[in-house]
Design a protein that fits this description.
Elements lengths: L1 E6 L6 H15 L3 E8 L11 E6 L7 H19 L6 E5 L1 H10 L5 E4 L3 H11 L1 H15 L3 E4 L2 H11 L6 E3 L6 H8 L11 E5 L8 H10 L5 E6 L2 H10 L6 E5 L5 H6 L2 E4 L8 H8 L4 E4 L5 H5 L7 E2 L4 H14 L13 H11 L3 E7 L3 H13 L4 E8 L4 H5 L4 E6 L6 H16 L5 E4 L4 H9 L4 E5 L6 H6 L2 E3 L8 H11 L17 H13 L8 E5 L11 H13 L3 E4 L6 H10 L5 E2 L5 H10 L2 E5 L2 H8 L4 E4 L5 H4 L6 E4 L26 H4 L3 H14 L1
Parallel strand pairs: 1-2, 1-4, 2-3, 4-5, 5-6, 6-7, 8-9, 8-11, 9-10, 11-12, 12-13, 14-15, 14-17, 15-16, 17-18, 18-19, 20-21, 20-23, 21-22, 23-24, 24-25
Helix pairs in contact: 1-14, 2-3, 4-5, 8-13, 15-20, 15-25, 21-24, 22-23, 22-28
């Protein structure tokens, strides 16, 4: 699998550190990673296995125009990286990054939310109501219809309550933590010779971390311990220390690649934030054996410490209570806190990210006849397993085909049989149903113009179709990718498979088998009916389908009845199959037979499949029955006239093609001519002149050899 992670920078910071841990956890799961970083600010040693792209070599410039310039650049880079490997998952992190990804219209990213955004916007509203509302609305626009990952349950609830995010669009996945790595690094030599008589605070130099509050509280604490402030902005924090005349009681240090020895040797770690998304440093400190106290801010600390260590939390923004809690913790001098952090384990978190890729959805459009719909079941089988939801748009007569496929979720039928206002109302209802879904891919297997409209509905999905001489620029501009026109001499199943192969949506190297699974209760019902009509399971059964919706593909009624009699003489039972429209001709065949076949009267598609599954062999003209036999793995004798067996013949089952050629008579050298009968007559001589003896002989030879 291939993932793309997009982030503004990889400076020392909680979100950046969590991203590095996520990268390592995914690599351990054999995920291939492309990392796009906006700014060339990287404070960590990155794994060699990743593909790293730095978008801006110079320092990022602010401003609306620069945002759109950066978004355009990101789009081009992402598409270039994605061209040959189709990312299974794109992850975006940090608010600025998420906004740029949104502007760039990167398809279906997952945005990681690291903070309580309502706390951020509420704080801004106190400074400026207009600015606060503007940011709040911007966040709503970015996130309301997007896929979100919250780093804590509190953050998830904040997004649902304050930004109206639906449950289906957000899930909690904690930051991954490699506990073994933390313990190993914590044993390394401390480069700072400051002993162990200190408490520590680890945080970026930003307002929400409340260095000012901590220093004000520290001024009230009567202790000979030092306060170590580990930060990414030591100069700014040192100024705060000097303002309070605490130089002799504080040590300000810049972030290092390995802070764990400092954390491990501390007597206490303090978190003083107004709000947090998670509070990773608390888990890291507890893992190192260092006790913690924290402000009971939104969100994270209370989830980490739980009810067992509720007394280690203190009300936010109160220097007196914080000072009292610090003094008490120093006095008690507890060494370790016993909390089970298995749910933060990096391997478990990586599995949850992998699970995200198993929830993709695809819309497959094939508004052609039943035979083509059976062929499409191969493409459905080929869709990778991480596409959990497969929906199909088809003609009404094909509905039952897709009902028999276990991977198909929703089946949408085109209301082509309706007229007037009823038709348009039905279309509107259908579009609304389809639009409720959020597809990752839309594949158009037909040349139906409706597919182009649907591709435009789902702009964020990858969409693909074939060019067709009847379709113009509107069609070509509707899809993400348009292939050249179909090769009319290629197997139909291979053409469907190629669409998936080009879009890298195909799981198998060669096209998968067809698949139909008739309902067991219907199979029982059909068997009961056939037995009532005289079917014996002690004799070999040949399922015979001589009719077609196109008359130029049929064999004559007289030929059909003679074939049945010739098989009957050899003690084979024949089930005579046909659609509702074939019933009249089938009755003529029946009346003309000496060995009466078992008649199926206007069966449904699923009943036809059930009867075929009961049979031992299938004998059929070129029709959907050949493809159904392939799906059910039935040995098949396929009668072909003007159509091409190389394109429409049986697939992945034992078969024999029964057809006349120039070896039988020079006049048949034209087949397959692909014409609708000889000279437009709707009658094909290569079928009408095929004798019953010839068909029966070929059939019996095939049965004998199989």
């Amino acid at each position: 699998m291939n993932y793309c992670i997009i982030i503004n920078d990889l400076k020392s910071g909680g979100a950046q550190k969590a991203t590095l841990d996520l990268i390592k956890a995914l690599i351990a799961k054999k995920i291939k990673l492309s990392i796009i970083v906006f700014e060339n600010k990287i404070d960590f040693d990155l794994p060699n296995e990743i593909e790293l792209v730095i978008l801006e070599k110079k320092e990022r410039k602010n401003g609306i125009f620069n945002k759109y310039f950066l978004a355009s650049k990101l789009k081009k880079i992402w598409e270039k990286l994605n061209k040959d490997k189709r990312f299974d998952l794109t992850i975006s992190r940090l608010q600025y990054t998420n906004e740029i990804v949104s502007i760039a219209k990167i398809p279906k990213p997952y945005f990681i939310i690291d903070n309580a955004l309502s706390e951020e916007t509420n704080k801004l509203k106190k400074e400026s109501l207009i600015k606060g509302n503007k940011r709040h609305n911007r966040y709503k626009k970015i996130y309301q219809n997007s896929n979100l990952i919250a780093v804590s349950d509190g953050v998830k609830n904040d997004m649902k309550v304050n930004f109206y995010i639906q449950d289906k669009n957000i899930r909690t996945i904690f930051n991954p933590i490699n506990f073994e790595n933390i313990l190993r690094l914590s044993k390394e030599k401390n480069s700072h010779n400051i002993g162990s008589n200190y408490i520590i605070h680890v945080a970026r130099a930003i307002g929400q971390k409340r260095h000012d509050l901590l220093l004000d509280a520290w001024k009230l604490v009567n202790s000979n311990l030092k306060l170590v402030l580990l930060t990414d902005g030591p100069e700014a924090i040192l100024n705060l220390v000097k303002e309070r005349h605490l130089e002799s009681r504080c040590i300000v240090l810049a972030f290092s690649k390995n802070p764990y020895p400092l954390i491990k040797n501390a007597r206490l770690l303090v978190l003083s934030s107004d709000f947090e998304g998670f509070g990773l440093v608390l888990v890291e400190a507890i893992t190192c054996g260092t006790p913690v106290i924290a402000t009971d801010c939104k969100f994270g600390p209370s989830e980490i410490l739980g009810r067992k260590y509720k007394n280690c939390l203190v009300k936010p923004n109160n220097k007196f209570l914080l000072a009292k809690k610090i003094s008490s913790a120093i006095r008690l001098n507890k060494k370790s806190m016993n909390i089970n952090f298995d749910h933060y384990d990096s391997a478990s978190i990586a599995d949850q990210y992998i699970e995200l890729t198993n929830n993709h959805s695809i819309l497959m459009i094939k508004t052609k006849n039943i035979g083509d719909s059976i062929i499409l079941t191969s493409a459905i089988n080929d869709v990778p397993q991480n596409f959990k939801h497969i929906d199909v748009i088809c003609l009404p007569e094909s509905r039952d085909i897709f009902k028999m496929h276990p991977r198909v979720r929703n089946i949408y039928c085109i209301p082509r049989d309706l007229e007037g206002i009823s038709k348009w109302i039905s279309y509107l209802t259908l579009w609304r149903k389809i639009k409720r879904n959020d597809y990752d891919a839309v594949v158009q297997f037909s040349n139906d113009w409706r597919g182009a409209l649907l591709a435009r509905f789902f702009k964020r999905a990858f969409s693909i179709a074939r060019m067709h001489f009847k379709r113009g620029q509107f069609w070509e501009n509707s899809f993400t990718q348009v292939l050249s026109e179909a090769n009319t001499q290629a197997p139909a199943v291979a053409l469907d498979s190629e669409l998936l192969k080009v879009s890298l949506l195909r799981e198998n190297e060669s096209p998968a088998p067809y698949l139909l699974k008739p309902n067991n209760s219907i199979k029982t019902k059909v068997l009961r009916k056939l037995k009532k009509s005289g079917l014996s399971e002690d004799q070999m059964i040949v399922f015979f389908h001589p009719q077609s919706r196109w008359s130029f593909k049929e064999i004559p009624i007289k030929t059909s009845s003679e074939v049945i009699d010739l098989l009957g003489k050899k003690n084979y039972q024949v089930i005579l199959s046909g659609s509702k429209g074939d019933y009249k001709n089938n009755m003529e065949i029946y009346r003309d037979c000496n060995f009466k076949p078992i008649m199926m009267k206007s069966p449904s598609i699923e009943e036809t499949a059930s009867a075929m599954e009961i049979s031992d062999y299938v004998l059929s003209v070129d029709s959907m029955t050949i493809h159904m036999a392939s799906a059910l793995k039935k040995p098949t004798m396929a009668i072909f006239g003007p159509t091409d067996e190389k394109v429409w013949g049986p697939y992945q089952t034992k078969f024999e093609i029964i057809a006349l050629s120039q070896n039988d008579a020079p006049k048949f050298k034209c087949r397959p001519c692909l014409n609708a009968g000889c000279e437009g007559s709707k009658v094909s001589e290569c079928l009408t002149e095929m004798s019953a003896t010839y068909i029966a002989k070929k059939t019996l030879e095939f049965i004998k050899n199989n």
